[in-house]
Write a structure and sequence with these properties.
Purple Acid Phosphatase, chain A, domain 2, 13 strands
Length: 263
């Protein structure tokens, strides 16, 4: 099974630029075109939040037009830039999404089980997993200990070392980590929000943040670093399950020379 993950699309209404300078729509188109050239093709695509930049209905409509270029089925979750009501209206055809309550779900029909959990706090940038959501996760993971599982979420549940970013990450991650640690069949936690490929050991497994399809968070490790982004090349991740292990690859979007033989 090959799973593609794209994240942090930040689509705005047609004709606008995010932050006055980022053409997120054309960059998403480039990412989709790159995905569509992959051989073998991904079986599914995970879209890990921040679908739009400000939750505007016109931005969701624009994004759905762009996502129509994906031949593979996709599974989507909301991020802190999304508005839950507009998000639901935009994805009413995605029957796995609940009609009310937290935007979280389980996908059973693939070789790897997908458990998507809602880390949103509407109106706030940081994420949170309340006691109700953590209890749902614990029960859901315990129901199928025989199945390799990926937890899908938007907010990074770990500190990245980017001070300006860590201030708006998942709050109280220790409670989430304690739940994950009880379930050894969790192969990976995949998330977005960071706008930069980042991996860390977490809860006895690996937590992996995906780069954005558009702008990236500035890699500035100074304690007094200001919040900012860069126009590093966009990217996405591929997660390959070979029946025994899950491999994760970070892919840079674009057209590059090659392949060339080493000999």
């Amino acid at each position: 099974m090959i799973i593609a993950q794209i994240s942090d699309l930040h689509i705005v209404p047609r004709g606008e630029l995010a932050y006055g300078r980022v053409d997120t729509a054309s960059m998403l188109c480039a990412a989709i075109a790159h995905l569509n050239r992959l051989r073998p093709a991904p079986d599914i695509v995970l879209i890990t939040g921040d679908i739009t930049d400000r939750g505007h209905p016109a931005a969701y409509a624009h994004c759905r037009e762009l996502l129509a270029g994906l031949p593979a089925p996709f599974y989507v979750i909301a991020g802190n830039h999304d508005r839950p009501d507009e998000f639901r209206r935009a994805f009413t055809d995605q029957r796995y999404l609940p009609e009310s309550g937290f935007i979280q779900y389980v996908i059973e029909e693939h070789p790897v089980r997908l458990v998507a959990i809602d880390s949103q706090v509407p109106g706030r940038t940081p994420g949170r997993l309340c006691a109700e959501r953590l209890a749902w996760l614990d029960t859901t993971l315990a129901a199928r200990p025989d199945r390799p599982t990926i937890i899908v979420m938007h907010h990074a549940p770990f500190r990245t070392g980017l001070p300006h970013f860590d201030a708006v990450s998942l709050e109280q991650p220790d409670a989430f980590e304690a739940v994950v640690r009880r379930h050894a069949h969790v192969e990976r936690i995949v998330c977005g929000h960071v706008h930069r490929a980042t991996q860390i050991r977490f809860g006895g497994t690996i937590a992996s943040a995906c780069p954005g399809t558009a702008h990236q968070d500035m890699l500035d490790l100074r304690p007094d670093a200001e919040e900012s982004f860069s126009l590093d090349p966009p990217g996405f991740q591929l997660h390959r399950w070979n029946g025994e292990r899950l491999y994760t690859y970070t892919v840079t979007v674009g057209d590059y020379d090659g392949p060339y033989p080493f000999s």
